Each structure stands twice: as C-alpha cells, then as structure tokens.
Amino acid sequence: MMPRLIVAAQLGHYTQSIAPHFQIRNRCGFEDNRSYICGGNPMTLSESVISVYQRILAITWQPDDSQIDIHIALMHEYLRRSSLWAKALNCNGRVTPFFDIADRVAPDVRAEPEIVEALLRHLKQIPLNGLVQRTCEWALHWAAISDTSQVKQLTLPEPYEPLLVLLERGGTFRRETGWIDIVGHGIATLNWLDYAERLPFVETDELEKRDRPSRS
C-alpha cells in the first residue's frame, strides 16, 4: 500500500491551549506558526487545516433555534454540494449523503494525525452525536486537500462549509433511516443525489458577511 502523504509530517507535537487555538512546538525549531526548519529542510504547516481546527474549537455548541430556517437551508445546501461531489467522483449509489469526500478525492493526503487526535479529544468532551463528530473530522481532512490539483480541477464548491456554518450558528443534525433530523425538522434523503440539479439554497459567503449572533 502506498504510504499516506501526511500534511505537516514530522512535527514535534501539538499543545492545545484552553482558548480556541493551539500553539505549535517543534523539537527542530521554527520561524513562525507556519514555516519551520526540521533536519535542515523547510516545511510548511497547512494554514487551511489550522483554520478549520480553530473554527471548530471556537464553536460554542449553544443551540439557537431562532435560526432554524437558516439551519435547514444550510443542510439543503450541503446535500446539493455532497451530491455534486458524489456524482463527480462516480460514487453514485455507493455512499450516503455524509461521507469522507477527501478520502475519495485524494486518499493519500490527510490532515496530520496529531491535530486530528487533538480535535477528537476536544469533541469527546461535548455531548455530540457520532455524525457531527465525524463531519468535523472530515472537514479537517478536506482542508488538507483543499489546495491540491485534484480539487482545483473539479471546480466544485467546498462540501463541508454549509455544515460548519450550521454548527457555528447554533444548529445540529443527526441521521435517521431515510431522513435527516434537524431539531425535529426532517429532510428526506431517499433521492438526495437529485440535489445536484438544484440551484444553491444559500450562499455561505453572504451569511459570513452578516453580523454573527452574539452568544455568551
């Protein structure tokens, strides 16, 4: 089996602070939080992976039912993007709406194991269902491949962005047989691949421009 190309391989170790960010410590020495020297060779830590890691740690996980309409629109948008990727990768009929898209696009490129482990340790402290935890992990792996040629040549939208925004805005979701539950609101998934023919349900960039709800 071909060895996996690990993003930011040979890092010393991560130390996670209480604040929603982490500091990188390296036995080989470093110049800043991105570039460092190891064994005389310059290496770069993926800024995309760091960014997604920080975003997830910053989620308050406080429910906000006042945004339920946005949560539903974001889930519809995720299904649209997931179906686009499933069809582009010829996964039709072999995957559910929620799957590790990065592993299908570039299976030899993954987020660095230590940062994945740090994320999972953080998420296990929160009463989340397994699908939400896996989605956060998949988003981290997606960040690791987001700048690769395999992704750029397909020119499709980032798949997990709607779900990250949903979680940031106080939403949650779980998978049931044949549908997705969003706090009592069901979305059928029987024909989810048909979402590929739909127009965007919501523009996540536009949501980011709005004032975020203040949560303590």
Task: Describe, in plain words, how this protein is organized in 3D.
The chain is an alpha+beta fold and 216 residues long. The protein has one domain (5-209). It is 40% helix and 14% strand. It has 8 helices and 9 strands. The chain has helices spanning 47-58, 68-88, 101-105, 113-124, 130-145, 149-154, 161-168, 204-209, and strands spanning 5-6, 13-16, 22-25, 35-38, 41-44, 109-110, 174-176, 179-182, 185-188. The strands form 4 sheets. A 3-stranded antiparallel β-sheet has the order 7-8-9. Helix 1 (47-58) runs antiparallel to helix 5 and helix 4 runs antiparallel to helix 5.
User: How far is it from the N-terminal to the C-terminal residue, by CA?
Assistant: 48 Å
- Percent in strands: 5-15%
Mean pLDDT: 80
What would you report as the Rg, rounded to the nearest angstrom? 18 Å
Shape: globular
Name the strands of the widest sheet in spatial order.
Answer: 7-8-9
Main beta-sheet annotation: 3 strands, antiparallel
Low-confidence stretches: 1-44
Domain count: the total is 1
Number of helical stretches of at least 4 residues? 8
Helix content: 25-40%
**Helix-strand pattern:** EEEEEHHHEHHHHEEEH
Q: Given the helix and strand composition, which structural class is it?
A: alpha+beta
Number of beta strands: 9
Tags for this model:
216 residues, two-stranded parallel ribbon, 8 helices, globular
Compact overview of the structure:
The chain is of the alpha+beta class and 216 residues long. The chain is built from eight helices and nine strands.
